[in-house]
Amino acid sequence: MSAKLYPLQFEPILKERIWGGQKLKTILNKPITSQITGESWELSTVEGDVSIIANGDLKGKSLMEIINESPNEVLGTNVYKRFGKQFPLLFKYLDAREDLSIQVHPNDKLAKERHNSFGKTEMWFVTQADEDARIIVGFKENSSKEDYLKHLQDNTLVAILDQVKAKAGDVFFLETGTVHAIGAGLVVAEIQQTSDITYRLYDFDRKDAQGNTRELHVDLALDAINYNKVETQKKYASTADASNLVVDCPYFTTNFIPLENKQDVHKSGESFTVYMCIEGSFDIEFDGFKQSYKKGDTVLIPAAIIRFVLSGKASILEIYIS
User: Which coenzymes or cofactors are required (predicted)?
Assistant: First the structure.
């Protein structure tokens, strides 16, 4: 690669959704023009939606291009060894003006067999919540395929699902198989495996502008669902100027950094690191490079950059692969 690697930002990939709104613009400064923008894909190599670099000498190149040119330097030695030249994570912000559909994601085995894809383990960090906003996550009590189908047919599925009030700062970790829906009035940062496989179970009988309902995937979902009650909410510490562990799973590690002054960061070169600015603003400095980031920004630190400094006053998510 002719250009030296540096912290990379990307053009947001904006997605209209029937349940979307305008908070991605008003809260997170995204350049939306639609009244129903539901998602901003911050960092993606999903086919047809590959992120394009927005800053510096590599501006205009795609994330896949620089991975293909310098996989160890961009992804990290361990990530490249494990995943090859695939970027294994997808980063998003979502604005739920209305409830999302009730859905489930398959595990790696099912997704590979059916779709030649990764499964979709994911986590949500709630960045903004209206009063009384809630999420649907898992079953209230252990259930079964038969009980689930009966309630689905009777249009009473919501009655057996767990509804949890959500506020800013809450974290929910959803393993594959967990039935879930983001509720109206929430903006969330989502970190997930690189997958766009979703089985929609129930969509509140909504119709689009043309009067059509959205496709459901009831049969596909039956073998993907975990029918047992699950604990999804994660507690975490908030030690200033430090990386506080939030989620550690085989697919990603997420830390919460309440930055009040500065943090010296030393990495191993084994994984890339991604920072999502949830509140405030901060700078990254290394080797003569200095760049400022604000609320709503996402930045990829290539694995070859192993020492740098974060400074400012911000709430930041730090994500890498252990």
Answer: Zn(2+)
Enumerate the known binding-site residues for Zn(2+): 105, 122, 180
CA atoms of 134 and 129, how far apart (whole Å):
9
Could you confirm whether 200 is annotated as catalytic? yes
Using DSSP's 3-state secondary structure scheme, residue 289 falls into strand
Degrees, nearest 5: CA angle 289-73-117: 120
Place of tokens 């398959």: 106
Topology adopted by domain 13-234: Jelly Rolls (2.60.120)
- The string of pLDDT tens digits covering residues 31-86 is 999 999 999 999 999 999 999 999 999 999 999 999 999 999 999 999 999 999 99
Q: What is the pLDDT of residues 195-211, one digit of tens each?
A: 888 999 999 888 877 88
Q: Which residues lie below 8 Å from residue 319, measured CB to CB, with a gap of 6+?
A: 89, 91, 191, 252, 253, 254, 255, 273, 274, 275, 276
Separation of alpha carbons 24 and 198, rounded Å: 22
Amino acid at the residue 234: K
The pTM (predicted TM-score) of the whole model is: 0.94
Note the CATH architecture for domain 244-320. Answer: Sandwich (2.60)
The residues of the chain that CATH labels 2.60.120.10 are 13-234, 244-320
The residue annotated as part of the active site, out of 97, 200, 206, 214, is: 200
No. of helices (H) and no. of strands (E), the chain = 7, 21
